Each structure stands twice: as C-alpha cells, then as structure tokens.
Inverse folding.
C-alpha cells in the first residue's frame, strides 16, 4: 500500500551544486539545480550526479510538511520542505510532483511563496512537470543543523488519481566543492480524496491522535471508526519504511487506543527522530507526525 508520507514515507551544498553532463565548480549551481535532479523518472537523477556524497546514509533527513492524507482536487496546500543534518551547514533542494498514472504529466502546480529563497521552473505546457528549487540566498550558507523552504501546491483536477512527490536535496559541508556532502531523497504518494458517492467508510472528525507528542519513548495512538472496516495502522520513518505494525485486519465500530512503545517490529528501540503514524482503511487514510525523543 502507499502512503502520503515519506510510497516509499523513498533534496543541494547543494543539489543546486550539481552538473548534469560535465564536472564544474560546486558553486556553479548554487543559484538552483538543473531540472530533472529531484530523483524523478525516467532518469531518477539526484544530487550524486555531481556530488560524491552518499544517499540516505547520514544522520539527517528530509521531509515535506503539510501534505494532506488525501488531496481535494484544485485545493491549494502550503508545504514546507525541511532538511536537517547535525554536522552540515549549507542546504538546497529540488522537488517535483507527477501523476502516478502518467509519469510524463505534472501532478498539479507548484508556486514559490518566498522568491528570495525559492524558484519554480515551469514546464513548457500546463501538463508538464514543474520543479521547485532554492535560489542562492536560500542555501543558508553557514547555518548549521538544517533549514526549510515554503512552496504552495495546487492539487490537480478531479479524476487525476494518485500524485507522486519526488524530493532530492543535499546537506552540504559548505566547502564550495563537491565532496563531503550528504544527499537525502524521499519519494511520496498522495492519493485523491475518495468520493462520498459510493458511501465510503468515514473516520471520526479527529481520526488519528497521538499523546504525548513529542513522545518520550512511548505514545498512545487513538482513533475511532463509524462502522466495521478493514484497518491498517503502522508507524513509518521519514523514508516511508514501516518500522512498526500496530494493527491490521477487520475492526468493529468504536473507539480504539493502542500503545506504541517506541520499538520496532524486531523489538529494537528506535532512534530519536521524526516518524509518522499512518491509519488506512479501504477508502480513507490519516497520517500524524510524531517526534520520538530519548
């Protein structure tokens, strides 16, 4: 199954510091990376096209905050692209959204909220993919720990189906070279909201709650069902990998409260960080961000 958080809940020191064909000085792309390096198909290029850094092996992460559990066609969603790494001090990203049913088509429109920090490379036609990325001032040279950028996403028209978010970025060491950078990528799916025409299972007004949050090693997950439904409840990391299955199968109407002890399915204590609790029924889904502290 796919989730609206990091289909695999699978950015540029600087993805912006990338060259597509020939090596160049790292600062050459500080004004923004070339299109097609967000990890998107058909080439699935990311920042390692130029940089010698590893992918998703550092102690940092990237995330897209503000994504809905399922989008309403035509709605505008304010998004925050977040990158963090404890040892790096320059930042960049590139993001695009495609239709899962047609990877040649853009999944809605991206717009810059702060042109002093971000920019949009628009496709040649309205149906082509857009790329959101940083500008030079948005790399926050010398800022340690991480940064974020704000982008508006206008969801596609009715009947477009699942949208696929590709995000690639670089937590750079600010040495103005292509070495020593840490690359992070994610690949997310956000489905179209289900229509009420066929009488879908309806979750309660507050479908998913966690307490406490931040969670000091343990959190209580609360949700309610208005009728009998097949339920999948799991905890995933920022890369979309399932770390703990909390419930799976048919469940009766009613209110539920389940404990998550901060452990993985293998019985190991998970490291502190950001996770997502994802609740899925055949027609509805909800996701809640939880910060695990130790």
């Amino acid at each position: 199954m796919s989730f609206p958080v990091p289909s695999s809940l699978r950015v540029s020191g600087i993805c912006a510091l990338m060259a597509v064909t020939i090596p160049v000085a790292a600062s050459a792309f500080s004004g923004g990376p070339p299109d097609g390096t967000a990890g998107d198909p058909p080439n699935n290029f990311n920042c390692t096209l130029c940089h010698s850094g590893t992918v998703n092996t550092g102690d940092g992460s990237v995330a897209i905050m503000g994504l809905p559990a399922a989008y309403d066609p035509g709605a505008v969603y304010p998004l925050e692209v977040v990158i963090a790494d404890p040892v790096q001090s320059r930042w960049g990203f590139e993001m695009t959204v495609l239709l899962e049913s047609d990877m040649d088509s853009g999944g809605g429109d991206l717009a810059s909220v702060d042109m002093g920090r971000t920019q949009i490379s628009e496709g040649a036609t309205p149906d082509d993919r857009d790329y959101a990325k940083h500008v030079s001032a948005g790399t926050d040279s010398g800022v340690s720990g991480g940064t974020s950028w704000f982008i508006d996403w206008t969801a596609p028209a009715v009947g477009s189906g699942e949208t696929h978010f590709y995000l690639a970025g670089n937590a750079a060491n600010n040495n103005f070279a292509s070495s020593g950078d840490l690359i992070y990528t994610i690949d997310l799916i956000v489905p179209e909201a289900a229509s009420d025409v066929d009488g879908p299972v309806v979750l309660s007004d507050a479908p998913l709650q966690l307490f406490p949050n931040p969670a000091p090693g343990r959190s209580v997950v609360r949700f309610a069902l208005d009728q009998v439904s097949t339920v999948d409840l799991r905890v995933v990391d920022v890369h979309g990998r399932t770390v703990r299955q909390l419930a799976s199968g048919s469940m009766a109407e009613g209110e539920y409260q389940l404990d998550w002890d901060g452990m993985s399915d293998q019985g190991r204590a998970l490291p502190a960080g950001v996770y997502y609790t994802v609740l899925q029924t055949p027609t509805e889904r909800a996701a809640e961000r939880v910060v695990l502290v130790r």
Remarks:
- The chain has two domains: 15-190, 209-292.
- The first strand starts at residue 61 and ends at 65.
- The chain has a mean pLDDT of 81.
- The CA atoms of residues 138 and 189 lie 26 Å apart.
